[in-house]
Each structure stands twice: as structure tokens, then as C-alpha cells.
Design brief:
By secondary structure, the chain is α/β, with parallel strands linked by helices. The chain has seven helices and five strands. It is found in: Cytoplasm.
């Protein structure tokens, strides 16, 4: 069983490697982040469950450090304030958990990362609508199909798989590449 899972993970990464269009969209997402940070903007991240953990991980790579000791970048995962999250879920419904914070935090030129393996998470879709209204560049990280989210965003980074763990592994690989490139372009080698 472990050998099968490792081979499946390698196969997804091989498909990513061979997908020039996907890698071009990753570069566009990196370009958007670099432009936003240079203009004093920020990167916001949202996702549910494992995608929330991935969102928080990638935000920390940007706000803390990746390879280089350098100034922090304004990057935040929108689920980390549990009081806000639970209050909004209680008062308005969980579908509004990210959209309300997007409305409060997002400004034109910011980049909003929307992580959803299916591309159909209602609260992530609502955040996309709020982010578009705020003037953000919307970057979705999904599985192969992109779901409803794929039609709403500026840049779709859709990992070529329908298997949730393989999709999440792909998100982390591509997210780490983005973080490394952003850091290198902003702060040098």
C-alpha cells in the first residue's frame, strides 16, 4: 500500500511537471504576489480542513521566512482568529466565515488565495465573490476540474488529480515554489 501511494504522488507531480500551462499560471500567481507586496499589499489565504492547514502554512512561509532571513511580508490565513470565525459562523452561518473577513481586510491589488480541493466549498466561493468586489487578484488552488471556483478566479492552479491527498500534496509543492520565487524576487538570492 505505501508503494502505491508514493507512486501515485510521483505520478501527480510528473503531470504537474509536464503541464506548461499550469506552470505558467503559477508564474502569473507569483507575479501577482510580487506586484502586490511591492505596492504595499498583502496575500490572504482561506480554505477548510486540510486546505486551511495548507493556507496557514503558506501564509506563514511568506509572513515569516522561507529560505532567506528578510523582512516579513503581509500574508494571513483568514481562519486563524477562532473567535471571529465562530462568531460569524454562529451569527451569519459558516458560508460567510471568509467573505466577511475578506470584505474587512481585502483591498485593491491584494492577492486572495482560495484553497479547495473540490473547488466547490461554499464559504470559499463566497470569499471569491467578496474578493472580486474588493479588487483582489483571485488565485484558486483546486483539484483537476476546478469546480465552481475555477470560473470565478483570475488564476486557476488546478492540480491534475481528483484524489484529495494528492491534490493537497500538489498544493504544497506549488505553494512552496511560489513562496521561494516571491522571496527570491523581492529579496535576492
Amino acid at each position: 500500500m505505501p508503494h502505491q501511494r508514493i507512486r501515485a504522488a510521483i505520478a501527480v507531480k510528473q503531470r504537474i511537471l509536464e503541464d506548461a500551462a499550469l506552470l505558467d499560471r503559477l508564474k502569473r500567481a507569483t507575479d501577482a504576489c510580487v506586484a502586490s507586496f511591492r505596492a504595499g499589499g498583502k496575500a490572504l489565504f482561506c480554505g477548510n480542513g486540510g486546505s486551511a492547514a495548507d493556507a496557514q502554512h503558506l501564509a506563514a512561509e511568506l509572513s515569516g521566512r522561507f529560505y532567506l532571513d528578510r523582512p516579513p511580508l503581509f500574508a494571513e490565513a483568514m481562519h486563524v482568529n477562532t473567535s471571529f470565525l465562530t462568531a460569524v459562523a454562529n451569527d451569519y452561518g459558516y458560508d460567510h466565515a471568509f467573505s466577511r473577513l475578506t470584505t474587512a481586510m481585502a483591498r485593491p491589488g491584494d492577492v486572495l488565495f482560495l484553497l479547495s480541493t473540490s473547488g466547490n466549498s461554499r464559504n470559499v466561493l463566497a470569499a471569491a465573490v467578496a474578493g472580486k468586489k474588493a479588487g483582489c487578484t483571485l488565485v484558486a488552488m483546486t483539484g483537476a476540474g476546478g469546480g465552481e471556483l475555477g470560473a470565478l478566479v483570475d488564476i486557476l492552479i488546478n492540480v491534475p488529480s481528483d484524489d484529495t491527498p494528492r491534490i493537497q500534496e500538489g498544493h504544497m509543492l506549488l505553494g512552496h515554489i511560489l513562496c521561494e520565487d516571491v522571496e527570491r524576487r523581492l529579496f535576492g538570492e
